[in-house]
């Protein structure tokens, strides 16, 4: 790795308020262990993202199509901000393009004269960042609530979470340092959290990674209950040094919280 990448982890081992003064007793292996922990953490974040993104695309599709029809998502009247809608639609158009190699896009353009596809195709093209913006711009609170209720959350909490999770997910996808990265974003305070989130969010810092991972773990258990992703993430977090977990804002003995101990459900018999 480059020295610049390496130094992103080395900084954490500096003496307090002493730039480039490494704490006594620190070894190269200590730094590499943190690097390896972060690398594996990124893979767990992408596994969380898989469940959340697949669910959000399906939920947005189902609820919007049922209420407004397959092309209703393109109606400016169902969006709060016309300006934001125009920007988001332009981003979708860029993904469609005339040279798209997606089989379903090619088949659609060959068969129909519509410049844009129905919502179920569009959602499969959107990134989680673009889809979260489309969701946040829906004018009908009842529509946003219907989608958020599947994740067991208030729609304001879901909107806030998606903004923060998109940043974390993109950092993981681009192999950036994520374990203690700070952003200007801050999640909303969950005033009446679901029972499974009560302990995890009690006193949580809404700008730190623990807040985002806790809500992500809760959503995955709601929308993808057979997944072992949450249990695997918990096991990985238990390999961390106590200081690393503290830096991530994870509470002491977090592993005893019911949030991190819900066993995956088996598939139902067909």
Helix content: 55-70%
Cα distance spanning the termini = 49 Å
Major β-sheet, in short? Answer: none
Total of domains: 1
Number of strand elements: 0
- What is the general shape? globular
Derived from helix and strand composition plus strand pairing, the structural class reads mainly alpha
Helical stretch count? 12
Summarize the structure.
The protein has about 270 residues and is mostly helical.
Polypeptide structure, described:
With about 270 residues, the chain is mainly α. The mean pLDDT is about 95. About 30% of the residues are buried. It has twelve helices and no strands. It has one domain.
Relevant terms:
single chain; mainly alpha; 12 helices; 270 residues
Q: Topology of this protein?
A:
Elements: H1 3-10, H2 28-68, H3 82-96, H4 103-111, H5 119-125, H6 128-136, H7 141-150, H8 155-173, H9 198-201, H10 209-223, H11 229-237, H12 242-247
Helix pairs in contact: 2-5, 2-7, 2-8, 2-10, 2-11, 6-8, 8-10
């Amino acid at each position: 790795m480059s020295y610049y990448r390496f130094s992103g982890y080395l900084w954490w081992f500096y003496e307090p308020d002493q730039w480039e003064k490494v704490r006594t007793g620190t070894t190269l292996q200590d730094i590499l262990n943190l690097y390896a922990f972060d690398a594996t953490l990124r893979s767990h974040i992408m596994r969380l993202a898989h469940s959340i993104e697949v669910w959000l695309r399906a939920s947005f599709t189902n609820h919007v199509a049922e209420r407004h029809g397959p092309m209703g998502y393109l109606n400016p009247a169902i969006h709060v901000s016309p300006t934001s809608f125009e920007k988001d639609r332009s981003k979708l158009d860029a993904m469609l393009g005339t040279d798209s190699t997606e089989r379903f896009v090619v088949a659609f353009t060959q068969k129909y004269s519509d410049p844009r596809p129905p919502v179920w195709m569009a959602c499969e093209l959107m990134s989680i960042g673009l889809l979260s913006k489309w969701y946040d711009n829906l004018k009908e609170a009842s529509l946003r609530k219907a989608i958020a209720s599947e994740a067991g959350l208030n729609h304001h909490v879901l909107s806030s979470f998606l903004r923060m999770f998109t940043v974390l997910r993109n950092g993981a996808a681009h192999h950036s340092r994520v374990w203690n990265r700070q952003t200007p974003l801050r999640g909303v305070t969950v005033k009446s959290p679901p029972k499974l989130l009560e302990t995890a969010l009690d006193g949580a810092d809404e700008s730190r990674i623990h807040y985002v991972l806790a809500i992500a773990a809760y959503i995955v258990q709601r929308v993808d209950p057979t997944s072992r992703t949450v249990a695997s993430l918990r096991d990985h977090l238990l390999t961390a040094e106590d200081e690393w977990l503290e830096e991530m804002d994870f509470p002491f003995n977090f592993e005893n919280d019911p949030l991190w101990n819900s066993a995956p459900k088996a598939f139902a018999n067909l």
